[in-house]
Amino acid sequence: LGVDEAGRGPVLGPMVYACAFVPVAAKRGLRTCGFDDSKVLTESQRRRLFHGLAGTPWLGYALTVLTPQSISAGMLARAKVNLNTQAHDTTIALIARVLDRGYHVRQVYIDTVGPPETYQAKLAKRFPQIDRIVVAKKADALYPVVSAASIVAKVTRDAVLAGWAPREHGAAGARVAASLAVMGSGYPGDPKTVAWLQAHRHPVFGFPDVVRFSWSTAAVQMDKACVAVVW
Predict the structure, then answer these.
(1) What CA dihedral angle connects 156, 158, 160 and 164, to 10 degrees?
(2) Is 5 part of any known ligand binding site?
(3) Does 158 carry a binding-site annotation?
């Protein structure tokens, strides 16, 4: 079983965690099927591989979508839950979900979040029944089963963003929906993304629901240009 995510860094949109799982004897065949780190594949290649999963009976997957609101709520709560902890908790929940379905998981490979040794020890303690747990940097490039999870996460995140239905009502929601195609990559360093944030900033209510309020890029804009609130 391999685990990876898509959308950890952007200020816009969800973060998607996915796991892929195959019989141990079949894991080497993933590379020959074309599975590789999603970042080195084109969008059409990722979509082709993702849609091919339905016709691959020996490969399964599961995923979790963390919305911008849930990410920010954790990071801004009184008892703060940072992004690394949210990532760890989501990964643990995905592995547990596969185990609860009755699969005998013998090996787990994960792209690290934080120090790999600490994370690996945490997972080994939580899942003593799993024979081998490997947490590594660039695991999506090293282990094909993590590459498969990476593709599931990336294609899913792209689809969620493309079909994003703003919670804002009326003209405001329509304006946000119409502008999603020009919001850039969503990363804080992208000038298009920064310009999009400026154009969709409300002086009282802040940003639309596609924005992670807890990111410093959004917080700085609110501090500078929005109405101050005294609690």
Answers:
(1) 180
(2) yes
(3) no
